[in-house]
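Working notes for the structural subgroup meeting. M.R. asked for a predicted model of this chain before we commit to crystallization trials. I am recording the input and output together here so anyone reviewing the notebook later can reproduce the run.

Input as submitted:
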Amino acid sequence: MKLAIAQINCVLGDLTGNVAKILQHAEQAKQQGAQLLITPELSLCGYPPEDLLLRDGFYQACTQALVDLAKKVSGIAVVVGHPYESKGERYNAASLLRDGEIAATYLKQELPNYSVFDEKRYFDHGSESCLFEIEGIRFALNICADIWEPDSARQARDAGAQVLLVLNASPYAIRKQESRQYTIRERIAETGMSVVYANLVGGQDELIFDGASFAMDSHGTLTAQAAQFEEDLLMLDMHDECPAGTKAAALSEEAGIYRALCLGVRDYIGKNRFPGVFLGLSGGIDSALTLAIAVDALGADKVHAVMMPSPYTAQISLDDSREMVKIFGVRYDEFSIEPMFQSYLNTLSTVFAGRPIDATEENLQARIRGALLMALSNKFGSLVLTTGNKSEMTVGYATLYGDMAGGFAVLKDVSKTLVYRLARYRNTLSKVIPERIITRPPSAELRADQTDQDSLPPYDVLDAIMVCYVEQNLAIPEIIARGYAEADVRRVVHLIRISEYKRRQSAVGIRITERSYGKDWRYPITARYQDNF
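Returned structure, recorded in token form:
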């Protein structure tokens, strides 16, 4: 027999559109000879629905959409993920649609409640396996987290299953695919079943779903894999109970991250129906990379870059920005903020009298720029992309209502050292970022002769400490034991703690690591705990 994986990009809550997409893929799969189509977790409504799952009307609408979908499915069986309510209990479910009816329903057993997941807030646990047979092959269903623990797969094998079909909405993170496949091989070794793994693709707020659906035989050999970061219909031939198909080419780490960022921008702007984006260019590496991602994601016609020089902006920053926008062909404007900056200083001169110049004057420039970008956004409807990176967000090297002003933070989970790697990667595709932007010392250019390292440790040191403390949860002594200077470690951790109030007010941004400053970072703003252990 043949089966197919519909690796689709769902729009959360667009029940009509998602049903149409499932039917379209079912028809394509049927035309290619498939008897069975598998869709991702909660494909009917999109993932994650979050507090929509607390609304009775949402379940009623999903139930009606599922019934309508089942009536339209013919000539092929379809497994679709959906929320399900029964006798006052609510479940993350998957149903087999066959011959115009809902033939069977499986209820997810393992409910993740860590990292970005909060399923115990919404769902009850299922407890029973779900088997069905097509062309003499016995299939069982699992849903995402079920496969990360041994019990559900073993239960399916003990019930007589030969092939395990797993519906997933597994968010992207760097090297996540390796972790998925390692875990699947563990389940295969324990059960002897082959596995078909269908994963969601697309951007949903901060989360990116990378697709990369795959199949493994009963020996744990990878026999098929779908493309990453795009919709795909992966056809599988079943030889007895072993699936086989084509394998999409693997991406390098930098290529995968870059495509994840582009997908995140494209879907956030497209699904929320913004006409385009504004972003402030500075002549620096962060805004240069953000511009490249925006153009690659949306097209030059939807990107409007603005350069806002101050008295401290170097001529090379202007020159490099002008070169980039010429290469990309985006709309570009320059607004000098010097008159506005001087007006602010004049207004405040009496109350500031006798006080030295400090970060206040630097932040005024950033806030003037933020106000101009938000005025453009108000007038034309396009969203402002912020350009700050994770290293800056970690230590608070960002201005509230200034460079943090905007609606979507493209590089929020991208460290400064990774920014440089991605810029160099993008230039291997076509040279769009001037070499001088990559090689010159980074600077906010808010005072004379300023560089980032006047205020911060070198970025390679800062980023390494950030990874240890933020992403790996290591304690200060453990980080010091890895060879980092105690003064640097304590300084960075102190900056992390006192900057929480800024991060809490930052724009939503794309998640690419296992610990971003979003759903999976929940630190208190007000706290006196000193992290010494």
